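Notes from the 1:1 (GR / supervisor)

We went over the backlog. Supervisor wanted to see one worked example end to end before approving the batch request, so GR pasted a single chain during the call. The sequence is below; no edits were made to it. Supervisor asked that the structure be written out right there so they could see what the output format looks like.
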Amino acid sequence: MTDKILVTDGRSLSSLAIVRSLGKAGADVDVCDDFKRPLSAFSKYITDTKVHEPISENPAAFVDWLVACCDREGYDLVVPVRDETTLAVAAHREQLSTVTGLFVADRSTIAKLMDKGNCMQAAADLGVPIPKTYYPTAGTEEVQTTATFPVLIKPRIASGARGIVRVDDPSELARKYEAVESMYPDPIIQEFVDHSGGHYSIGTIFDEGAEPVATHVYKETRQYPASGGPAIAAHTVEREPWVDSVLDLLRAHDWKGPAHMDVLYDPNTGEYKLIEVNPRFWSSLSLTINSGVDVPHILYKLAVDGDVPPSDGQYREGMNYRWIVPNELLWLWSHDRKLEAARELGWWDRNTCCATLSRDDPRPIAGVVTQGLGYLTDGDRRKKIFDRGWNT
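Structure output shown during the call:
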């Protein structure tokens, strides 16, 4: 592979995993973000780092910058990573396709799946199991009298469990719903499914024909914050028959590109229940790649060559994943019984891969420190990092 590729959102773990995958394959990889020294910029596989204005302030201006950058640099492929970048790129696929290669779904499809209310309704219509979900349009009285508590109030569009509020007492529902609604329009209410049954993730990539080219399943065993956030420990598990029925939701939406699906096993009903869809790359992507499902390379083949070699769908079960720096350390610091928690973390073994640490590519650890210090000195970014998990 000798192509020149631009990976967006260099701050994210997903971007670092993509950079490492494509760089090892021989691509000339650049990264971009709205600050100069994001995490992925420290990788030995990076040629250059491009800086643009924040996308949230003006998505159209970002697209204009991206078009000019691709025209100037001659990128063969652009890989959007985070939500707002993926939406901006998808909204201007036709314009961007004149200057670079892309492999992203239609913007309207991405937006529908990103909206938890719309996504849950679509899943229910297809018969995909979900937690009992309510869509209040005229108050919460019906939910108070019919729902099994506890319930979770969830923003339609948010990530990292931000804005989610748990309600144990029906008498508190109206007040707490109003508080969430003041920040997030039209939130949904879901009956709570205990994580003790198992929290599973599906990472997949679909081709132009809306069929999965590759799929990886893993079980999340630790999150930070513990009440709900990205996985900081996980391991690869067998792909069981229930996975294919969940993937039907993506097939029904003519999906193409990468997607991640959160699923909880409900021991009370014996069902695997879809919690949400993230229509983009996922933070634990390095586990997927190290388990033998190289999604970034597959995306490259689909975008540039139009197809991929046939696969038997097998991957390496039992592969472990840890996000040690900084989130595992933050998890340990937040734990009431730190010594007991430290024992729970266990030891590193040869079947363990890490989100940031790598013998082959060690410099991103400096990126963790540099980026972290930048976040701590920026109030808005600091809030996004620590404002995660459920509230009560």
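Supervisor's comment: The chain has a mean pLDDT of 92.
Batch request approved.
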